[in-house]
Amino acid sequence: MRPVKRSLSKDKIKVLLLEGVHQSAIKLFERQGYTNLEILPSSLSDDELVEKVKDVHIIGIRSRSQLTDKIFAAADKLIAVGCFCIGTNQVDLAAAKKHGVVVFNAPFSNTRSVAELVLAEVIMLLRGIPAKNASAHRGGWLKSAKNSFEARGKVLGIVGYGHIGSQLSVLAEQLGMQVRYYDVEDKLPMGNAQPAHTLDDLLAESDIVTLHVPETEQTRWMMGSRQFSRMKPHSLFINASRGTVVDIDALASALKSGHLAGAAIDVFPEEPKGNNEEFISPLRGIDNCLLTPHVGGSTMEAQENIGVEVAGKLVRYSDNGSTLSAVNFPEVSLPAHDTARRLLHIHKNQPGMLNAINSILSEYQINVAGQYLQTDSAVGYVVMDIDTDNGTEILQRMRKIPGTIRARQLF
Ligand SMILES: NC(=O)C1=CN([C@@H]2O[C@H](COP(=O)(O)OP(=O)(O)OC[C@H]3O[C@@H](n4cnc5c(N)ncnc54)[C@H](O)[C@@H]3O)[C@@H](O)[C@H]2O)C=CC1
Ligand SMILES: O=C(O)CCC(=O)C(=O)O
């Protein structure tokens, strides 16, 4: 059983923001009365994080921090995680749920930034610019039209036709490119884009292949030596999705053998924790490979919008209990609770929970102004607006109901 806790005043709610989360998030927290903020520019190691999270109520991360079961087990006070990015693969979402921790992200705010970077990379790679640039830095002068091509008329193969892939599709057609895409779901083609039946078909038809899939069990190492050998000789490859989607040694071999004419890679199986750590990769030193430090979504516009979006979701959950657009939790969209006291109860989804909760309420003969319940296969989340002065006592009793994961009250 977790120790009994009371709802805290906002200046006691500790917010830890890692990996240089944008100032817009900090300002939003402060405007909403959250002044107990710790802000760090990079991620922390496992051991550092275990120590740090012990007194933290809300944590904000980007793609680098790994939030494992071990971290959640150590984070006794943690109520919510904000991923200030799209990907949530760095968080063990099931473990978070098991510990009653709600996880939010920003599903759209940096998608345009990624699509624009990839479009620029398409043009740079078609012109052989990465190798020409590297040579010029060493005093070389590779002035030649050999193996330089226009984008117009070339086939761009997009793997994963979601928010980023479909925006890229529109931008690429504006350049006169022909777009093919492959997705595991049926997707509405944008403009004249055409779906490929299989990944192999797409690889064989495309002049440039670009990946825009999430990290999942199915996408892990989806591009290996067999897939690279299916690509056209002298074709180009881009990955700005997740590092674990590509077998990086197989990619290095395909580039060194000349089978691939070039690549642009933004994400890596192993990435430095912060800007002071050395970047190690078998792709280093391959001139026709454009390497960027996971900056696909790193524009001022995207980061500012993400800051506001995710901090807003965290504050709403902390102030109000609203889990709307949470990625691992039943979604409850709640009205404000200006007059009533609000109790939040997170429990294992097992028979009899609501009965047990309501029988406590009926013992106190309380007027329940509102009750909201959402469940999924693992957890149930009940929110109750009640008129009573016995809130703390009731909360303590509800915490003792077997199957309770976490409960708190909002005044
Ligand atoms: N480099 C960077 O800075 C950034 C990287 N990303 C990465 O890009 C990924 C994609 O972002 P969005 O387009 O916003 O996601 P999204 O969820 O809108 O689209 C992903 C698409 O991939 C498809 N998909 C899933 N598994 C697949 C498979 N095995 N084969 C083919 N298609 C598959 C899905 O059906 C979906 O249509 C994110 O999950 C994130 O990992 C996102 C933002 C910035
Ligand atoms: O900007 C970041 O830290 C990560 C961006 C990213 O990969 C994402 O949004 O999934």
Descriptive report:
With 411 residues, the chain is of the alpha/beta class. The protein has three domains: 11-105 and 299-328, NAD(P)-binding Rossmann-like Domain (Rossmann fold, 3-Layer(aba) Sandwich); 111-291, 3-Layer(aba) Sandwich (Rossmann fold), CATH 3.40.50; 330-410, 2-Layer Sandwich (Alpha-Beta Plaits). Helix content is 31%, strand content 19%. It contains 13 helices and 16 strands. The strands form three sheets. The chain has a seven-stranded parallel beta sheet with strand order 8-7-6-9-10-11-12, with helices on both faces. The chain has a five-stranded parallel beta sheet with strand order 2-1-3-4-5. Strand 14 (367-375) and strand 15 form a beta hairpin. Helix 1 packs parallel to helix 11 (300-320) and helix 5 packs across helix 7. The protein is elongated. Mean pLDDT is 95; it is low at 1-6. The structure holds 1,4-dihydronicotinamide adenine dinucleotide and 2-oxoglutaric acid. 1,4-dihydronicotinamide adenine dinucleotide is lined by residues 86-87, 110-111, 114, 159-165, 182-185, 212-216, 218-219, 240-242, 266-267, 294, 296-297. 1,4-dihydronicotinamide adenine dinucleotide (NAI) is lined by residues 86-87, 110-111, 114, 159-165, 182-185, 212-216, 218-219, 240-242, 266-267, 294, 296-297. Pathway: Amino-acid biosynthesis; L-serine biosynthesis; L-serine from 3-phospho-D-glycerate: step 1/3. This is D-3-phosphoglycerate dehydrogenase. Catalyzes the reversible oxidation of 3-phospho-D-glycerate to 3-phosphonooxypyruvate, the first step of the phosphorylated L-serine biosynthesis pathway. Also catalyzes the reversible oxidation of 2-hydroxyglutarate to 2-oxoglutarate. It catalyses: (2R)-3-phosphoglycerate + NAD(+) = 3-phosphooxypyruvate + NADH + H(+); (R)-2-hydroxyglutarate + NAD(+) = 2-oxoglutarate + NADH + H(+).
